[in-house]
Design brief:
Blueprint lengths: L1 H14 L11 H15 L3 H6 L7 H4 L9 H6 L3 H8 L1 H7 L8 E3 L5 H9 L3 E6 L9 E4 L3 H10 L6 E5 L5 H4 L8 E8 L5 E10 L14 E4 L11 E3 L3 E3 L17 H12 L7 E9 L2 E9 L5 H5 L4 H7 L1
Antiparallel strand pairs: 1-4, 2-3, 2-4, 5-6, 5-10, 6-7, 8-9, 10-11
Helix pairs in contact: 6-7
């Protein structure tokens, strides 16, 4: 506990550099305010930056889901089965097999020969460490690299397990935003106490570097999508606190960009949410491929930073659904 407190105090101090100058004239005052927000709202330094607490009043701050106050939702919206399934990628892929249609294999349940055959039978595969979050550690290898991966896997002596998946490609209309990464939709939903489905937020996650993942914590940006028009209606946002009007590599403007198949998304995600209704509040990651939607994973208590993208704080909304 003591180490964790000092780690967060250090993180808060280092985060001061991310606060815009007009709000950071008096660093000591701002630092004290960050610590106050940890105690008062459960807002860690990441929350303070990504939710822009430096420009919000006390009343506004209280309306946001933070790292601390979302513990209420951990207890209210999931049972043990739902938590376990969402936390383990292999269990998730098995449970949602009707929506996870790509080939995959889980190293802990597979022989070395099975792993080799799987890699060699695909032009490219995606390697996902099962204990990873935010897209950290994900890599792509081709069919000639099976031995190299197996040597690495053996060296870890079972301490690291992986999901190995067929590599997906985006629908051409969103692949052009950043050909290097797999763009995905983050679709946040909640099933209330009466069993009614609510679509809370739809974001397009876009990679901004020459990396496979589009996760905003790995350098990507989030763009809010208007479900009526199917178009991006706000600039791209990164949790470090900055906005982007256009893609830094391709130069494509975000606002007004048409995302394909949005009109079909709500009915699709309703069907997905019914597979495991005991997981009531989920951030679904969905790829749009040339063949249609492909479910990537589900996230319990999805990231607080998404509230900045649509400008709608969710704490009181979610409390009303308990």
């Amino acid at each position: 506990m003591i180490k964790r407190i000092f780690r967060e105090l250090k993180a808060s101090w280092l985060s001061l550099s991310l606060i815009p100058k007009p709000y950071n004239k008096y660093k000591l005052f701002r630092y004290i305010d960050m610590i106050y927000c940890i105690v008062k709202y459960g807002a860690l330094s990441d929350d303070y930056i990504s939710l822009k607490f430096f420009e919000k009043s006390s009343k506004e701050r209280a309306e946001y889901v933070t790292s601390g106050n979302k513990r209420l939702f951990y207890k209210a919206f999931y049972d043990d089965d739902a938590r376990k399934t969402l936390a383990h990628k292999n269990l998730f892929s098995e449970r949602f097999k009707d929506f996870v249609t790509r080939d995959w294999i889980y190293t802990a349940n597979s022989s070395i020969e099975d792993i080799r055959k799987f890699i060699e039978s695909h032009d490219e595969v995606v390697i996902k460490p099962t204990n990873s979050t935010w897209g950290i550690g994900i890599s792509v290898i081709n069919s000639t690299m099976a031995d190299k991966f197996i040597d690495k896997y053996k060296a870890a002596a079972g301490k690291e397990q992986y999901m190995i998946e067929e590599k997906l490609i985006n629908h051409p209309d969103i692949a052009k935003l950043n050909p290097a990464s797999l763009q995905t939709l983050r679709v946040e939903t909640c099933i209330d106490q009466n069993g009614e489905f609510h679509l809370l937020n739809v974001l397009l996650m876009i990679g901004t570097k020459k990396i496979i993942v589009s996760n905003c914590h790995s350098g990507g940006v989030m763009c809010h999508v208007d479900m009526t028009t199917g178009k991006i209606d706000k600039e791209g946002y990164n949790p470090k606190g900055y906005w982007l009007a256009s893609h830094p590599e391709t130069g494509i403007n975000f606002v007004g960009y048409k995302v394909p198949m949005i009109q079909e998304l709500e009915s699709y995600i309703r069907r997905v949410s019914q597979v495991m209704p005991n997981a009531r509040y989920v951030g679904w990651d969905v790829a749009i491929t040339p063949k249609g939607f492909e479910l990537i994973e589900g996230n319990f208590c999805p990231g607080q930073c998404t509230q900045t993208c649509d400008g709608i704080p969710k704490y009181e909304i979610l409390k009303s659904y308990i």
